[in-house]
Predict the structure.
Amino acid sequence: MKTAPQKLAADLARYYANKDTVLIKAKQFRKDNHEHRLTIERASRLKHKERTRPAKNARQSARNRVVQGNEFLILVKELNKIYTSPCFACGSNENQSIDHLIPLIRGGTHSVGNIITLCLPCNLSKNKKTLTEWFKVKRMIGVD
């Protein structure tokens, strides 16, 4: 019997082995079932409102505490550099987004020194991990 981390690693490895097919099927499903998915998501949010709202409020409070009272001047030149540089992890130039090396929720600052460019898929998979933790997980499942 597999432990939870082993199962997660196996699931992620299977996903990355079939990533193109999975993404195509998911995109088509979303397109074909848009209204149905919205209905399900709305019902789920209403059903679990007491669980999701406090978590959302906690995340926003953490961001507010970190940024409160600190104003950071980000020049247009720096912003252009961030958005024109390739993804820090995979080198892609599509779907660029800004991410924090050390997440705000984990004590990172909202400053130019803590901001990197990641493509949207990398940013979503990184979540609230630090860059080191994220690379370690990717290495564990064999995705580089």
